[in-house]
Amino acid sequence: MKETQVYLRTEQRWKGLQFQAETRYQPSMYIAKVEFEVESGMNEDDKEAFASTILRLLEEKMKLEFKRQLETTEEKHGFLETSSLTRLSERLARECQRISQKYRVTQFNCSID
């Protein structure tokens, strides 16, 4: 099995009640994107904890998943097999659903492009 280094580049921002984050997992060509809208009553401490939870998901859990998929599947020029990409997308959706239930989230969207 080959050892792969995965490098991250994450951008995040609050836009009113909406938190958006994108993480690129290099050497793959993919970017995980999440967007959460929170209830208006969320205080600053909760917002900070929420953002930290999202970043931990993108920069730790999903990084390990990308690394595992890159090491165990046929990767061609940064592109993964379709089944690997599907597994990654499903994992991201499950984790976002779990987070949205823990915090006061009114809606969320997530994808891997």
Order of helices and strands: EEEHHE
Count the E strands.
Answer: 4
The protein's oligomeric status is: single chain
Count every helix, treating DSSP H or I runs of 4 or more residues as helices: 2
Low-confidence stretches are none
- Report the span from N to C terminus: 26 Å
Largest sheet: 4 strands, antiparallel
Arithmetic mean of pLDDT? 93
Which structural class should the secondary elements be placed in? Answer: alpha+beta
User: What value does the Rg take, in angstroms?
Assistant: 15 Å
The shape, in one word, is elongated
- Strand residue content: 25-35%
Order of strands, widest sheet = 1-2-3-4
Roughly what percent helix? 40-55%
Provide key terms for this protein.
single chain; 113 residues; alpha+beta; 2 helices; elongated
Describe the structure.
- This protein has helices at residues 44-72, 82-102, and strands at 7-15, 18-26, 31-38, 105-112.
- With 113 residues, the chain is α+β, with helices and mostly antiparallel strands.
- Helix 1 runs antiparallel to helix 2.
- The chain starts with 6 loop residues before the first strand and ends with a strand.
